[in-house]
Structure formats: structure tokens, C-alpha cells
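The data are quoted verbatim here:
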Amino acid sequence: MNGSGLAAWARKYWTLLRIKISLIYLFGLAFGFSIAADANSDIAWYRILFAIIAFFCASFFASTLNFYADVEADREFTGRFKDTDLSGQPFVTGDMGRLETALAFSLSAAGCVLFSLLAGYRFAVFMIGFAVVIGLLYSHPWLRLKARPLTDILCNITGMTFTLLAGLSLGVEYLPPVLFLVWWALFVTVVYIPTVINDVPFDRQAGYRTSGVVFGAARLLYSIIPLTVAMAVPGVLVAISDTAWQYRLLVGLGTALAVAGVAVVLYCWKPPYIDLDPNWVLVPMNLFIVFFFTYGIIRVAGA
């Protein structure tokens, strides 16, 4: 394989990883890890490394399966309003052969299981659960919960919660406060719904019955207003509690950002699309990831 061929191969697998979406799910792991590091700073370095590798194996498996199952919708994609031009993904362009596809799924799934177990048994339960929910349940053609109303949203809530619990499991054994989990579910829903809206024309054409197709793009989009209001109640209760500072920080900043985000999204709603660069959401979330991972690593290094 020459230099240009190697570069093309690398770009193909980078596309399959879909890094911007992977980083959204990584947020839960980083957040949970920062709490775990506070509760138990004596976390072995190899467990942190194996946890990160396991996550990216799981995310690659889920993303690749999503691309594999979404060929019909992605083929009609115009290239606007998403993190990447879906019409150029490898399964649409025919760049993935049968053997290569089988190897991609097999190796990423095996890597997820192996490195998750090396990071810890409790971690493995949640990380493998994440791969099953966001990979198999969400995308597999036999199940395809992403193409059904409400279950597409529930899969994302569950997947994000599993990454949060995986991060926590590196250092603590308890579950987050129930009120925080309620706030978390509402927050994930508010962030996820706008991504569904821009897929509606392509999902409808492909025959999918997503929440956006079934309930209508406008009706689903406006549902984020009462959902954001509902976030305030558990958010305030968590903020005034004596729980870990990370929970209190996130509900405060997260609720404020959700309110601002809803206003911006509604302003940018130009049916049938939300004319908004997704980086306005992705960049702040990535900064949070860096912050929480850095904090956790500093805590572990100082133990």
C-alpha cells in the first residue's frame, strides 16, 4: 500500500469512527471519571488507558453499524446540517467489502470486550452495555430502534447513562443521585432532539419511522421548550444538595446552556432544517471533556 492508499484507508476508518459523535458519548465517561477520581484517587493508570481504548472500540463498532444500516437515508443526504457529509460514508460509496466489514465489526467488538474487562468488571458491564444499546439495539437492521418513535430517544438516554456509569465505576460503586439522573435524561433528550429534526426529510424518504417522522419535525422541536423547563426542578434540587461538586456544576451550567441553546435552535429553525453549525454544540461539550479528564488525571497523579 503506497502513501496515498494508506491515507485513503485512514480517512475511511476515521469517517467510520465519526469522531464528533463519539466525543459526545465520551462526555459521560469523562464526567463520571472526574467524580471517581475524587472518590478514589488510587486508580491504576492502566485502567484509565484501557477504559479509553474500550470506549473508542465500542464507539467505532456502534458508528460503523449505524453507517451500515443507514445506507438508504445517507445516499440521499445533501451534505448540510450534520457533522459530516453522510453521502460520502464508505458503505454508500462502496469502499467497504464483505470481508473488511466483517473484520471491522469483529475486531472492534472484541476490542471493546477485552479492554473493558481489563479496565474492570463493573466498567465492562456498562461499556459493553453502551455498545449493545447504541450499536445493536439502536442500529442493527433486525431491531433498528433508531427508526421507531421514542425508542430512538430512549436509546440515546440509556447509552449516555451507561458511559456515565462506566466512568464512575473506575473509582466508586454507588449510582448517581436519582434527581441527577432525571435531569441527565432530560438534558440528553433536549440535546438529541435537534439532531433528529435535520434527519427527517432523509428518514421519511428512506421509509424510517423516527420520532421526527411520526410526530412531525416542528412538533418534536417545540417539545424541547417544556422539557427544558422541566429540567429546572431536579436541577435546582441537585444544585442545593450536598452531593459531589461535579453534579452541582453540571446541572447549573448544563441548564443555562440548554436554555440558551433552545433559543438559538428555535431562531435558526428554517423548515425543514435547523440552519445551525453543529460545532456550536460540539465545541463547548469537547471543552467540558478536556476539563473533566484533566481534573481526574491530576487527582490520580497527585495520589
User: Anything to note?
Assistant: The radius of gyration is 19 Å. Strands lie at 269-270, 273-274. The longest strand covers residues 269-270.
